[in-house]
Write a sequence for this structure.
């Protein structure tokens, strides 16, 4: 019994809680992004709002996006200076995973993987 409790305690010690950010998600046509990568409409990429972009500190990291009963992942490749607090701008391929492109804007939760 002692070994089982020790193992469970060790697992709990390595478990971290995920803090999700809530904001509007819009879509854009990617090209050469602020992180120096060139992408296209089919690339699974995201541009972060200025505060979350943190001067490029998150370039190349992935985020998980949840909304409208769906979930997808995208790579940080750009800055979205026009996005509000918590807002993200994604490629059409990513937006289409969550909602129809015609919607244009939807509220989502997202977090770094």
């Amino acid at each position: 019994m002692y070994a089982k409790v020790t193992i469970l305690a060790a697992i709990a010690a390595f478990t971290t809680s995920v803090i999700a950010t809530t904001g509007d998600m819009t879509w854009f046509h990617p090209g050469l992004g602020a992180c120096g990568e060139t992408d296209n409409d089919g690339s699974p990429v995201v541009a972060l709002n200025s505060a979350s972009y943190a001067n490029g500190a998150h370039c190349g990291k992935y985020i998980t996006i949840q909304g409208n009963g769906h979930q997808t992942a995208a790579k940080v490749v750009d800055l979205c200076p026009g996005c509000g607090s918590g807002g993200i701008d994604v490629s059409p391929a990513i937006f289409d995973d969550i909602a129809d492109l015609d919607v244009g804007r939807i509220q989502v939760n997202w977090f770094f993987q």
